[in-house]
Amino acid sequence: MEQLLEQELAGLGATSLKRERAGVRFEAELATAYRICLWSRLASRILLPISHFAAPDARKLYAGVKAIRWRDHLKPEGTLAIDVTQSGQPSPELRNTHFVALKSKDAICDQFMSTVGVRPSVELAQPDLQIRIHLEKGEATVSIDLSGDSLHRRGYRAAGAQAPLKENLASAILILAGWPALSKPGAGFVDLMCGSGTLPIEAALMSSNTAPGYFREYYGFLGWLGHDAAAWKLLKKQAIEARITDPKKLPRFFAFDRDNRTLSVARENAAEAMVSELIHFERRELKDASQIAPNYGSTGLVGANPPYGERLSEVEELKTDYKLIGDTFKQKAPGWNGFVFTGSAELSKVVGLKPSARHLLYNGSIECRLLTYEMYSGSRTPVTPS
Prior knowledge:
Helices cover about 30% and strands about 25% of the residues. It is α/β, with parallel strands linked by helices. Helix 5 crosses helix 7 (about 200-205).
């Protein structure tokens, strides 16, 4: 997703972009960083580096963290949390991330005690200051986590509900499948196996120009002393004004699933995302898929994120579903584009259609394939240039 993220960041005003493993480094004014937190559909976290130093052992780590002027970032009576990540082979002394976080917390609190006689407290849920420390090859980078919590948590998902797709992964799937270009009044979006509704909801948020961070109440910068409240207030106001609310100016969205309980969760999520009036949810078996074109639009995007099958017996059972998806694309969606997102290389072959493109994405630790298809109306006739 790094290339997609780089393109998105550039569109949101970031400069000096440099793609790295699992991320993109960039430069931006603070207001632009806020805009990215609010509008990025693909990023997980936005980190503001504030210090980089050698940390081959615990003593150097403590000294480097303590040297940062923390009163510029946090009130003495404020709250903090520290997340630690590592890459490469860390020194034996710093191998335990909990120890690194504890040592760093001690350095911050000791600085406050020595200067003002008051120390901040640890608060894991929505602290005033979320700190990220990354260790690599004996070096430490200390950052302020402006996002505070992973940006895939949009704020519309029902409490405690599990989903097979994170929201930012769903957005990546939609972008790679061509939904932004296909999305227009009169077009259609059909999810044949919608589950908890992540794909149709993200598709509707894209089409209605709704900021993905619109529903979030917490960001890591809100309690940070460097926070520019006026800039944030303006961005929120602009996001409200940018939303398209007239259904006549939007595509049509249809989401089907065979499980009523799952559909109930999907409807609840859509209501929280303020798109429930845009998406038609319906219980329907995959084998009962109706004619997609032209019933749901003369053109559009139809897709599915079917189960992957963890055991051999499940894979055999799922082959029927994967073949049905391919048959539905071919027989009932002429003129549309299609996609299948799956973590099973074996099952992806059962769809029975030649994909126009393949993309490798990870759903957590699972290596997945996004296969996209173009279903032509009638026969595809080659055109000879004159």
